[in-house]
Specification:
Layout: E1 33-38, H1 41-55, E2 61-66, E3 89-92, H2 102-123, E4 127-131, H3 135-146, E5 150-154, H4 165-175, E6 178-180, H5 184-192, H6 206-212, E7 235-238, H7 249-260, E8 267-270, H8 278-290, E9 295-298, H9 303-312, E10 315-318, H10 322-325, E11 334-337, E12 350-353, H11 357-367, H12 370-377, H13 388-396, H14 402-406
Parallel strand pairs: 1-2, 1-4, 2-3, 4-5, 5-6, 7-8, 7-10, 8-9, 10-11, 11-12
Helix pairs in contact: 1-6, 1-13, 2-3, 3-4, 7-8, 7-11
Length: 409
């Protein structure tokens, strides 16, 4: 069954800020060194507009701590793809332990606590930004807590019922001292968890800031990345294991790939993250492309290349948050498979389907029609208006004393 309307996600009007009341703060003379925690290919790019804005201030020193899968060859050694402004520093935090079973993921998370604590203790940042809901991000937030560092959390208050990320996100919320959720609805959820309203400001998503000025890379410069092209439309496939109330990852990916197996055109498959079961997903993708000359599998892509591929595509298929947060800005039809993103708001570019090959195939066919593409061209991204970084800096400019931020009641 196809669902154009986001019945499982909810829907929102085009983004608008409803700023909570804020108590006046003192000039943040204590705020000098600002650290950003990155643990995956996704969050490093999301931070970019904010790091650039911080780097533009002479009084502030931005530092990006890159851990998680950034040092993993299996996931594309994405540390090499990170670009920071001249005034910013990039510091590797090496802790990644390979493996895709629950024990390996738990051990990796435990190792991340120690490694990020050592990095934070050496660096002594005045403020640490964490983003989203990864287990490694929770580890970094806990490390910052134990080091007595002020924590600012981006993208809190969201919901993803099909992944253990949901629990990690809410745990980070209780560790953080400042909250910059993407939507007013997310801010309300954070407040309902007991966070003081003056600590919470919905800003919109930073990814929308970057996409507002994004210029796709020309197609001929992507020839070595995209699958062989002709006149036929491109399908981009991006799938991660669903980790809550789901069948085994091998069964999930088998249904998803079967749903796109009849696509008559080039396909770009992008490898999964490091969630439990990612090995089975990667193996199935490798087998899928082995006998398909018009299909290509990559472990990862730099953000600009990834967005350029989406801008060139006819449809995005899988269960990545990119379908909800980024595809609307590119007016790209997206087929969202299963419940990994259940609970999240989505725009009218998204078609929700169960993890079933027939349902996926039908949705892909419908998403590729001219009628649906015309509808998608009218979509406004509900996650922001391109001014998130500006709002965050306005808050940093009027922070209260560090001691007040650290004491939560």
């Amino acid at each position: 069954m196809l669902s154009e309307s986001p019945t499982r996600h909810g829907s929102v009007a085009p983004w608008s800020a409803s700023s909570p009341s804020r108590e006046p703060g003192v000039a943040p003379a204590w705020l000098k060194r600002i650290a950003f925690i990155s643990t995956t290919r996704a969050d490093a790019g999301i931070y970019a507009p904010l790091i650039e804005a911080v780097a533009a201030r002479e009084a502030w020193e931005p530092v990006l701590l890159a851990g998680g899968t950034h040092q993993s060859a299996e996931h594309g050694l994405t540390q090499n793809e990170i670009r920071v402004p001249k005034r910013a520093r990039l510091i590797p935090v090496d802790h990644f332990i390979p493996g895709d079973d629950p024990i390996a993921v738990a051990c990796n998370t435990g190792a991340a606590i120690g490694s990020f604590a050592e990095a934070i203790d050496r660096l002594r940042p005045d403020l640490v930004f964490v983003l989203g809901d990864r287990a490694e991000m929770l580890a970094a937030a806990l490390a910052a807590t134990l080091c007595g560092t002020v924590i600012a959390h981006l993208h809190g208050g969201d919901v993803t019922r099909g992944a253990y990320d949901d629990a990690c996100r809410h745990a980070i919320t209780k560790l953080a001292h400042l909250h910059f959720p993407a939507l007013p609805e997310h801010a309300a959820r954070i407040a309902s968890m007991g966070e003081a309203p003056w600590r919470v400001l919905p800003t919109g998503a930073l990814a929308v800031d970057a996409l507002a000025t994004f210029q796709p890379i020309e197609r001929d410069r992507l020839e070595g990345v995209l699958p062989p092209r002709d006149h036929r439309p491109l399908l981009v496939f991006l799938f991660h294991p669903q980790t809550v109330n789901a069948p085994p990852a091998a069964q999930q990916i088998a249904e998803a790939l079967a749903g796109v197996s009849h696509w008559d055109g080039p396909m770009l498959l992008i490898g999964p993250n490091a969630d439990v079961g990612h090995g089975a997903v990667r193996s199935a993708m490798e087998a899928f492309v082995a006998n398909r000359p018009t299909a290509r599998l990559v472990a990862s892509l730099p953000q600009a290349v990834f967005w350029s591929a989406l801008a060139d595509a006819t449809v995005l298929v899988g269960n990545s948050s990119a379908a909800l947060l980024e595809a609307p800005s590119l007016h790209l039809p997206a087929v969202n498979i299963g419940d990994r993103q259940a609970g999240r708001y989505s725009a009218a570019n998204v078609i929700d389907v169960p993890c079933d090959r027939a349902a996926v195939a039908a949705a892909v066919q419908y998403a590729s029609t001219e009628a649906f593409r015309v509808q998608t061209r009218q979509v406004v991204n509900p996650y922001g208006d391109g001014h998130a970084a500006e709002r965050i800096l306005a808050v940093l400019d009027r922070l209260p004393a560090r001691e007040r931020l650290l004491v939560k009641s």
